[in-house]
Amino acid sequence: MLWIQHRMRLPRFQRGCHLITQHVLNELKQLRSVEIGLLHVFLQHTSASLTINENADPDVRIDMEMGLNHVAPEGLNYIHTMEGPDDMPAHIKSSLFGCQLSIPVTAGKLAFGTWQGIYLCEHRDHAEGRYLVLTLMGSSFA
Questions:
Q1: Model confidence over 52-102: pLDDT tens digits?
Q2: CA-to-CA distance for 10 and 139, rounded, in angstroms?
Q3: What is the pLDDT of residues 126-140, one digit of tens each?
Q4: What CATH number labels 2-140?
Q5: What CA–CA distance (Å, rounded) separates 36 from 83?
Q6: Going by C-beta distance under 8 Å and a sequence separation of 6 or more, which residues neighbour residue 12?
Q7: Cα 108 from Cα 141, distance rounded (Å)
Q8: What average pLDDT does the segment 21-33 reach?
Q9: Dist CA 9 CA 130 (whole Å)
Q10: Per DSSP, what are the bridge partners of residue 5?
């Protein structure tokens, strides 16, 4: 049984939904040696989120951001505003998608469907780079 864990820093992204699959794959060279397993991706922040969605058409990412802003808009009478008007809406959006993903690994690759990829949804206007903890577990090829 193989267990590997990496903490990685993503580059700073502007507010919106960003495809980060390749960043994760670049960090986990050991993935190729796993015959069957699971990758757990954990985001160490409360004002951004992770989700799996379409990786082909960038319009999906734009529309996701628009929809999230409709669900949790700035300008409501939030009580928690110490870090600015985008802070509380960011916490709400983060709770909607969550901060972790589990992705099956099959024959050295993430077992995504045809059009799936990992998104980092950055919900703040001025966030720094975000940290992920990647935990890969599984059986190596014999």
A1: 999 999 999 999 999 999 999 999 999 999 999 999 999 999 999 999 999
A2: 27
A3: 999 999 999 999 999
A4: 2.60.120.460
A5: 43
A6: 127, 128, 129
A7: 9
A8: 97
A9: 6
A10: 135
Length of the chain: 142
Contacts 24+ apart (CB under 8 A), 55-62: 55/19, 55/21, 55/112, 55/115, 55/116, 55/117, 56/115, 60/17, 61/16, 61/17, 61/18, 61/19, 61/119, 62/16, 62/17
Contact predicate 72/92, CB 8 Å:
yes
Burial of 75 (0-12, 13-18, 19+ CB in 10 A): exposed
Domain ranges of the chain: 2-140
Q: What tokens appear for 78 in the block? A: 């939030």
In the chain, the percentage of residues whose pLDDT exceeds 90 is: 98
Distance in angstroms (rounded) separating the CA atoms of residues 118 and 67: 18
Kindly report the number of other CB atoms within 10 A of residue 76's CB atom.
10
Q: Take residue 24 and report the two structure tokens written for it.
A: 């994760």
d(CA 90, CA 48): 7
* Residue 9 binned pLDDT confidence (cut-offs 50, 70, 90): very high
Residues 136 and 33: beta-carbon distance below 8 Å: no
